[in-house]
Design brief:
With 286 residues, the chain is of the alpha/beta class. It contains 9 helices and 14 strands. It binds adenosine-5'-triphosphate and magnesium ion.
Length: 286
């Protein structure tokens, strides 16, 4: 099944246009959403998760018209919001059982489902602890476990790796890649390298608009031979500043140019960071 957004726009009452004419076609597998703070990633996810009605445009998941039949989508949706709260005194396993029940997991099999979710998110060791006593990363993983419950066909995760240590981050991607074999996994993150590593498809949002979408590999390959690294300072004439990088503490400039910008400049292998900074325009650090 595919998730298809067509010309989706959303303006908040305060006057901010958080989404402007966003069209995206997302197939099964992992899809990474990148973009600066305030780009509209969470707004897009809330629209798809049926928590926010767009001003115009349409959203379809397979045959389901998401805006016309939000209840239908909710039955097959797993959603991790960027921010969420729990009742702090309730133990981890009870919290998870509660949400599993809401997702329609029958009482008979619920215990096994909860145990399996706790195992997949590495929370078995803290299963009896009140949620209020968890560390930030453990809390985040409980949020992920809730999103995974009820066998969703569409999984929307808003910065799922926020606060996770490197081991838990990899463990989470292992779980998500397994899920992605049979469902659409839409995730947002600020870790550009994670998108490169784990997502065959991605998009960059900037100021509510879709800057680019497609395969990260192809985007990086398209910059082959055009990225140069040289002395810090203003970008030389005829080049486009990408960002800065550091080598052993020495600040270097990265620019985009058809040929070597001058003495002291060396070719650099393009990365998805370069693609990102090329598309977030004046938000890049130069
Ligand atoms: N409830 C709201 N009322 C008014 N404006 C809002 C509301 N929520 C978000 N915005 C604004 O909409 C824009 C997009 O916000 P959004 O949360 O979607 O960005 P984001 O890409 O998720 O950013 P971040 O990376 O910081 O999570 C921002 O300018 C934000 O200030
Ligand atoms: Mg957000």
């Amino acid at each position: 099944m595919r998730l298809v957004l067509n010309a989706v726009s959303k303006r908040y009452p305060g006057g901010v246009t958080a989404l402007h004419d966003v069209t995206l076609d997302i197939g099964p597998g992992m899809f990474g959403l990148l973009g600066p703070n305030g780009a509209g990633k969470s707004t897009l996810m809330r629209v798809v998760a049926t928590l926010l009605r767009p001003d115009s445009g349409s959203v379809h998941f397979g045959e389901t018209d998401v805006l016309a039949a939000p209840g239908q989508l909710r039955q097959i949706l797993g959603y991790l919001p960027q921010e969420f709260g729990f009742y702090p005194a309730v133990p981890v396993h009870e919290t998870l059982a509660h949400f599993a029940a809401l997702k329609g997991v029958a009482a008979a099999g619920r215990h096994d489902v909860v145990e399996s979710l706790l195992a997949r998110t590495n929370l078995l060791g803290v299963r009896s602890r009140p949620v209020g006593t968890l560390s930030g990363g453990m809390r985040q993983r409980l949020g992920v476990a809730i999103a995974l419950s009820g066998n969703p066909q569409l999984l929307i995760l808003d910065e799922p790796t926020a606060g996770l240590d490197p081991t838990e981050r990899r463990r989470l991607y292992d779980v998500l890649l397994t899920m992605a074999a049979e469902c659409v996994v839409l995730l947002s993150t600020h870790l550009v390298e994670d998108v490169y590593e784990y997502c065959p498809a991605m998009a960059i949002l900037d100021q509510g608009q879709l800057a680019i979408s497609g395969s990260p590999l192809a985007m990086v390959q398209a910059l082959q031979g055009q990225v140069w690294q040289g002395p810090a300072g203003p970008a030389p004439a005829g080049t486009r500043a990408l960002s800065v990088s550091y080598e052993a503490g020495v600040r270097m400039s990265r620019v985009l140019a058809d040929h070597a910008p001058g003495a002291g400049w060396v070719p650099a292998a393009p990365t998805l960071d370069d693609v990102y900074f090329l598309h977030v325009g004046d938000r890049a650090l130069t």
